[in-house]
Amino acid sequence: MKYHITPKQAREVTEEQFYSFFNEIVPRSNWASYHCRKMDIGKMIDYLDEVTVGRSIVDRKWNVCTFLTDRHYEGKELVDALWEAMKEDISE
Questions:
Q1: Is 47 strand, coil or helix?
Q2: Strands (E), the chain
Q3: Element (H, E) at 35
Q4: Domain residues of the chain, as ranges?
Q5: How confident is the model over 4-19, as pLDDT tens digits?
Q6: Whole-Å CA distances, 22 to 13, 58, 69
Q7: Segments of the chain scoring below 70 in pLDDT
């Protein structure tokens, strides 16, 4: 089970967007590689605030539903489904 996003996933958003998820974070030139481990399951659930998490017994994928937007996200790993929700949250 993955517990945090990968550097590749971190680069799916801009550096400024990524930093906006945190109150205090030290900027670095290799921000995606260095800070990706800070974006873990707990951080994402805390940031998204009200979510429902479940796992399908049919395809074994994780499902995340956000209450505020009533949108559904899925991923092979829980962290991947949560990251999809996080990315959409900052793009709105």
A1: helix
A2: 51-55, 62-66, 71-75
A3: helix 31-35
A4: 7-91
A5: 999 999 999 999 999 9
A6: 14, 36, 21
A7: 92
